[in-house]
């Protein structure tokens, strides 16, 4: 898939995020929007998955370690065809299979229920170890938040992954520099993230998380790296794509009113038209 197509896919994911949060009247749009390009690249370029057979044995595995960012996750799954996009409007509603945190027992395409921050990377490490022990060829990807890596469990998992040389594991850090109470630097600085992971035995790559060219190079480098897991630190903008949400801490979580919803969708439609004209 060419870069322009991926940009259109990311735009569609952002539309899905806004639709889901607006109709739910709640949710976490900021950290979902920041990860749109990451999710688009993973689900439409990088991973071996099949929407017609979500549980196929040799599929690559994905864990949304920052489990509150389900609007982005569900929007990506819907775009890929795991369920109808119209279902996004049922997000967080009673009886919906699209709950506030992902549910592997109910939602097609979800490999792991998550939401307790810090634990998703440990689960991904377990999946990768299982694959290694059973001589399977699947790869494992975990998407975590930069505030999330303040959790000690993340570093226990990192130490174990490097010790077991799980080179088919890729951890992606959505480094938008904002968490619920402020900047990650103000709350409990994890910087320099790359050097910390390297000290634990990872191969570390830092990229612009909104550049498909840089994401592609990073994921290719991860495939070439042998004997150690890879971490991709993706520098992103929280709320990316919506002018009044970008780098705005108040949109870590929250609901859009009708005026905000219309403005957000208008901005995204304007971007879609621009991308179509270029492609």
Automatic annotation (TrEMBL):
Keywords: Thiamine pyrophosphate. The keyword Lipid metabolism does not apply. CDD domains: TPP_TK. Residues 9-266 form the Transketolase N-terminal domain. The keyword Manganese does not apply. Transmembrane segments: none annotated. Its cofactor is thiamine diphosphate. It holds the Pfam family Transketolase_N. InterPro entries: THDP-binding, Transketolase_N. It comes from the Bacteria. Belongs to the transketolase family. This is Transketolase domain protein. It comes from Lacrimispora saccharolytica (strain ATCC 35040 / DSM 2544 / NRCC 2533 / WM1). The lineage of its organism: Bacteria, Bacillati, Bacillota, Clostridia, Lachnospirales.
